[in-house]
Design brief:
single chain, mainly beta, 4-stranded antiparallel beta sheet, 1 helix, 26% strand
Length: 77
């Protein structure tokens, strides 16, 4: 799930320049919230940016950035 809730931008091929959010990343496969406008082809390239599920634990363990966390993890409910 490293890239889950992140973004993917296609940098070549039919979808060059298309950016969308990643719903889930599991087993080396991306599941997108919005499908690509055109079919993917072998050799298409992309840039994926790691996602954040907005939890303090993720901010600490994945990004080592707890100092900039702006949520309220200790407020109930």
């Amino acid at each position: 799930g490293y890239f889950s809730y992140g973004t993917i931008t296609f940098t070549s091929g039919n979808n060059n320049g298309f950016t969308t959010e990643i719903r889930e990343f599991s087993g080396g496969t991306f599941a997108l919230f919005i499908p690509t406008p055109k079919a993917l082809q072998v050799g298409d390239t992309y840039q994926a940016i790691a996602g954040c599920d907005k939890r303090l634990d993720t901010c600490i363990s994945r990004f080592d950035n707890a100092i900039n966390f702006r949520g309220e993890p200790h407020v109930p409910g």
